[in-house]
Design a protein that fits this description.
By secondary structure, this protein is an alpha/beta fold. The chain contains 5 helices and 8 strands, in the order αββαβααβββββα. It has helices at 13-18, 53-69, 77-81, 89-99, 185-202; strands spanning 27-31, 43-49, 73-76, 103-119, 126-129, 140-143, 150-165, 170-178. The two termini are 32 Å apart.
Length: 208
Amino acid sequence: MNPIRKTLLLPSIVIAALLVGCASTGTTNTNSDSADADSAFTDFLVIGVAGDYDSRAQFERMLVSGLKAEGATARPYHDVVGGNKPLAREDVLAAVDKYGFDAVVVTRALDTETDFEVRSAVTGTKVKRKEGGFKNLFRYDYEELDEPVSLSLDMKLTFGTELYSAASQSLVWSTESTGRKAENVGELIDETAESVVRQLKRAGKIAR
């Protein structure tokens, strides 16, 4: 995916967040040509885009916690809008107006890579994965199973983060990054949130 280089208005958050692009390895950071491109922020509205509410809420909470640890103020989108509600332009703008956020940070999954290995001492054991998406990774049918089966997992996530200025309603910074491998979904979410905080801090976007 090519980094976004032009100024984007805040209402485009909804469109950008729902797009799924091509993954890249490593980390790519981009400063926009916005007048706020060199600004640092103190109060963040945190938005995570995920396929299910539990994952989104966990990510938003972890990112909020990380930002607060760096001295910033932050609130998760799911808390601001009152639970499991879809990302909507009107709700984002209303939240900025009500709570006085000076920045909106949006993180979305671009690609996931999962390696798994099933081990068993039983000859002829049949393992059939049920149909389903990423959250159904642990749903398997086992036939002729007489002894325990060991399931080894390695998961890696490529994600994109966009930081918007609430004052100018424009994109000021964006990044694409592939995180370290994790052994379960919860660990993957936590690692992603920690990585976003590190990147924002390194880019000088968190005011001290």
